[in-house]
Amino acid sequence: MARKKIREYDGKRLVTRHLKKRKGIKLGGAGTTDSSATAKAATAQVSSTKLKSASSPKSFYSALSEEHPWLLNTKLVVKPDMLFGKRGKNNLVLLNADYESAQQFIAERMGQEIDVSGIKGVLTTFLIEPFVPHEQEFYLCIQTVREGDRLSFGACGGIEIEENWDKVKSVVVPCGEPESASPIVREQHVYPLLADDGIPEHHKSTLADFITACFETYVELDMTLLEMNPLALDSSGLPTILDSRVELDSYASFKNAKVWGSDLEFPEPWGREKSEEERVVQAMDDKSGASLKLTVLNPHGRMWTMVAGGGASVIYADQVVQLGYGDELGNYAEYSGNPKEQETYLYARTLLDLVTHNADGGRRALLCGGGVANFSDIAATLGGLQQALTDFHGKLQMAKVKVFVRRGGPNYKAGLQLMRDLGNTLDIPIEVYGPDTNMTHIVSLGIRWIEEGY
């Protein structure tokens, strides 16, 4: 499972579209632009990319109002859609505005760098929705946990939810609960959440139906988080999603391409943008049957990893941190699934470009580790690394990089000998170890190499 956040704009469109398919479910206020089964969420997106692609901001907003006529005759809410919370507490929400004021609010903040909870980032995407008057705010959250799916609900939603967390009730729907057993979920799990004097009795049936439908949608769409804070009831007593957060299991994308929609994106977390090297590896991963991952943590780090296997990659990173070198860890990297030699070569080249960048006279270590492979040809995968090291041998020498290899599995002896010979040929320090050596032993060796150079 890989939990990935999506924008509120995409989350609301996705949830609204599927809730409307549920029998008897009606959404109010900002829920939809009409009552049909194909209704779209009344929400509009403004991004720096879309503004730049238009001939002018005026033409963009004119086209946007043609697509969403309610923008011209409805009071509006405007807020950033950048995967961070507490927008209200940070004065980043405009309420009860007209379309002109909404445009001005966005223009004043688009491209601005702001600090949210100690993380700086640039505002590039905003959301515009109808303003919905309401009297009471609720909190709803469905989240995947080890025991199953946890449902939480409280009559105390809004920006003060953390101060009222003791008023939120939670139940866990055990793993394996049939999705079709809606009456069971409704009666055994949802109704107990509504046993609160703060919830009007005449609204409990509507809320129970809505929460049950949300749970069904959550399961159907392979969500890992669905949070509505606040959730409200409009003047007609219909559920209205005011603010929401959605996370999806990205590993389920192979079966959900149609239901999620082809235009769904998984943005980077707030304050982070993919580097060129990360984008290159992402493109390789998208086209490969193997797994190729790269995250740059510290471009100026002295400890770098190229690890075979997802589990092993985490173990190596943990060991570096445990030994006090977390600040020097340059990256998280993982390749697995028996990549082709050419794929390993291109992957290693991309990584080595980072490892050797801006040589400053200090030593650096590259840990090429992994467990004992079941089916990957070690000689073949190390062959790709060998080609990349050959291409970069001059830069490796200038950056004082020492390579530490620890691998095991099919044909590992030939692969290790290949690396040993390569070090002698290129005159770069390479140490190799097989499965008889503790997997993380090369971490301490890498640290020693770096420290002896001070």
Automatic annotation (TrEMBL):
Q: Source organism's superkingdom?
A: Eukaryota
Query: Domain ATP-citrate synthase citrate-binding, which positions?
Result: 272-447
Task: Please list which residues make up the signal peptide.
Answer: none
EC numbers: 2.3.3.8
The main location class comes to cytoplasm
Q: Where are the transmembrane segments?
A: none
Descriptive protein name: ATP citrate synthase
Q: What species does this protein belong to?
A: Gracilariopsis chorda
